[in-house]
Protein: Polyphosphate kinase
Amino acid sequence: MSDESIFINRELSWLDFNRRVLALGKDKNVPLGERIKFLAIYGSNLDEFFMVRVGSLQERANLEQSKTKKEKRENKTNMTAAEQLAAIMPKTAQLQEECDKFYAKALENLAENGYHKVDFDHLTKEEEHLWKKYFQSELFPILSPQIVDNRHPFPFLRNKEIYLGVLLKEKHTQEQSLGIVPISSQMERMHFIKKDGAVQFALTEELVLHYASSIFGKDSMQEKCLFRVTRNADIDVKEGMMDHDIDYREIMTELLRRRRKLAAVRLQITPAPAPEVERLLCSRLELTRKRVFLQKSPLDLSFFFKLSGRMEAEGHPALFYTPARPMLPPPDYDLATEVQKHDVLLSYPYQSIRPFIAMLKKAAQDPDVISIKMTLYRMARESQIVQALMEAAENGKEVVALVELRARFDEQNNIDWSKQLESAGCTVIYGFEDYKVHSKLTLITRKGAEGYSYITQIGTGNYNEKTSELYTDYSFITADERIGEEASKVFRNLAVQQLTEESDKMLVAPLRFKSVLLDEMDHVIAAARMGRPASMILKNNSISDRDIILKLQEASCAGVRIDMIVRGICCVRAEVPGKTENLHIRSLVGRYLEHGRIYSFFDGTHTRIYIASGDFLTRNTECRVEVGVRVEDPVLVQKLTDILQLQLRDNVNARVMDANGNYQKVKPAEGEPLVNSQMGMYELLRNDWQRTEPWKCTTPAPETEKPAAVCQEVTVEQLKQELPHVFQPAPEKAEKAAPAAQQPDHYEALEQMLNNKPRAAQPAPKAPAAPRPAVKPVVTAPKKKSLLERIGSFFRR
Structure:
């Protein structure tokens, strides 16, 4: 086999990930109200994929075709931009067929539960009268029809907006023209009526489609359909940087305006139109037939979010996950005081973000606090965290906020917050021209009688109260003076647009992230070659970095047992004989979006474990400023190890990859207990606020497991009895926002899975695969490398 046999194309891997999200839309083990949300998430994910990834590839392909740019091949599968586009389209069409089937089944299930979608092709006379009257009184007056012919230009079609298209024929000349009606996103999209104890719902675009003859006249109308255009949204900030006298915020604002009119990359149509309509639209939008997707389901599935919200409000608890709240600390818990005793690790959404917010608010009032510094990437629309920073500035503290204005699809929100921060007296900086700042870093500096002291927070997730209840993330808080000094240095470098070249306790991309992790892998490989039971457990969102993939192959061939928990993009194949047979990959997609990054390295004696903001995507390792930290507190090392082991035992949300790159859902063996790692976290962290020494799992591991394996799964019903403060209905309706629609970093949308079935052990080509370690973690200091060695590692290709 060639080296390429272990690689998977990034874009095709992402489509496989979205297929795993789509699969939750038909999973009978997922409540119906949640299934329809996953269908909506699948759709919003795909929109973003076309807007960003396909848009970028199309731009490159156009430049290469015109010879403006030299042909560039992807560095793993050696595909050009045009070849990648050619592979994406048929796979997307296949996914659309699956989506149509799952959608039809969802409608059947909704009808069984009293929610019927109006079928305008089969209305009774009474229903026809009701809907026609509604159309004429409520919709017809606000519609703006247009005619496209020789005398009228083709209108601009807005990104992701739905349109009615009608093929018209002149009575006398027999000439054809196209009628277009924008169905504005400003209109109410769903309409509900109660009938015979059931709820009927209709979509505005289908209502307009049904009564199209009322707009254009029955005699002249030949064909009608609905269509939707997706446009490229991959704006290039460098294009706006030519005039350095312009404020950076103004540049971003202008680029956001420009984004709305970028080239079309996809056309969705339903039902199948007349060939003349399709040809005309493709011609005007400059799209090939391969970019047209005919579908039987609605063009935009986001209406399922509103429908599920109504279902929940009307009281159908059986159709949704059991409500769960983040666990709160005792009333007298003070995070700033606790962190002076020992390092703290918070796990969202299982534990509340409130203690962190309370610590910020307390720091804003503390006379000994002289400064608060924070990196801000994605913030909530109503952010208590930003409010605390503004309060601190108004109280005379030095507040430095690095606001990344290029956080995709959150640009406008960040622009707005940056203005408010400046107005409150905060120092706002925007980071590098060439590196997006994706770090999650906070530094609180106090000056007391004994000098300066620090509280440093390093996290895997955004400072966002909303997503902290939807995404799984880890927040490490410490009073370690050395980490505080390194964090202070990072902020100084960010302020003057310098990369951090030296750090001992922290990971700081791009110069002290990948190189450190590759060194850790080398250390584990050396241990395996000496016959030790070496292993790695690596959990993140995505992996595409070629250097890391090749190092994983080297580790597998050396006999290192490697378990990877990769939610999304995965450009390496697992269990390829002779290459990655000791590499085992699983993806977790479930109730919460798995977003945390944990990197654990075991050399047969010692465990070194990190959390970080960065994945193993090349953009994270080489093109962004990311931060991470090695967790040295033995209690927290054990806790993180237990979390990883719990996820490796999950047989509810998991899917595992085979040597062909395909994922298979994990099914528990007969008699094997169900292990849902997400629900198991509530049990694992039940007594975490009152720290015991040493850390102990709250439930024992099964006797057949090794000591390193973690808590046995308990049922949701048991958890509801034992943790009533967590699993109980909220006193007021919980806000069920769509994760993917709100915070798309993500390709990022709601995605989680886990699956595993027993697999036969495969012998490594050079050494036997090591079993998963059962040795208690021991902390050792990392080996410091010279500056020359680190620079050499960074430029290694």
